[in-house]
Amino acid sequence: MGNRLKDKVAIVTGAGSSGEGIGNGKATAILFAREGARALLADCNPEAAILTKRMIDEEEGESEVFEADVSRAKDCEAMVARCIELYGKVDILHNNVGIGWLGGAVETMEEDWDRIISVNLKSMFLTCKYVLPEMEKQGSGSVINVSSLASIRSGPYPQLAYSSSKGGVNSLTQSLAVQYARKGIRINAIVPGLIDTPLVQPLKALLGEEIMEARARAVPMGRQGEAWDVAMAALFLASDESKYITGAILPVDGGLSCWVK
Ligand SMILES: NC(=O)c1ccc[n+]([C@@H]2O[C@H](COP(=O)([O-])OP(=O)(O)OC[C@H]3O[C@@H](n4cnc5c(N)ncnc54)[C@H](O)[C@@H]3O)[C@@H](O)[C@H]2O)c1
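Above: the input entities. Below: the structure tokens describing the complete assembly.
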């Protein structure tokens, strides 16, 4: 056990994984607990979050599962209330929930657009709505929003709703960062590039095995990232080591955002 988050309490949304293996949220929850945080593992699929809790238990970390659909205000309010009831405070809000979507304006149905914006963007507004007053009372806190490289760069496949939702995440991050800068609350975003997590498995099913090689080739470092790369960045932003950093949109992308091919 480390102590970079000793005595801190974290809420991690989407703390399970959508498939076998370790996704960004799961890796982050495990790493936070490994560094001493007590973690509330929120997920709309409690079974997935229970698997994360088991891994934390094995390392003698402290966590609790909370079932919540973070696109719903009531669930977000209840999630924060549960965290206060359990641990008495919230130091870190890690907004990891996000779902993918392929298609442009013509291919995207209105209800799909609404769902993606709701799960990927509205959810972060809602969790902040209920967490920020608690952090304000404490006079401290760190919020980390998981965005995507798709928010600032377009790839070969159109992902209009997804890209737009993540662009909104960046704006939400910077706007709140300025508003809360004098209140001891830091708000940053992580921009993962091409990360090999369970979330991208449907791409394999849709586009074939070659897509994984193509993803690796597309990166200056010549490989996809791992969930642990995203988790390490989150750990830094969650800890007091980043105490002078707010409003940052931090790429974790092997150099992809700098590369013009
Ligand atoms: N893998 C990549 O290449 C990549 C790239 C850029 C950004 N990202 C971002 O990383 C984040 C997710 O990473 P992951 O690996 O943890 O994904 P994941 O799909 O493995 O896990 C996400 C978890 O979120 C839960 N979830 C989904 N909708 C929810 C909701 N409405 N309320 C509560 N829980 C919900 C799922 O049940 C799942 O357990 C997303 O924000 C995604 O956009 C990933």
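Note for the figure: Residues 9-197+227-246 form a domain with the Rossmann fold fold (CATH 3.40.50.720).
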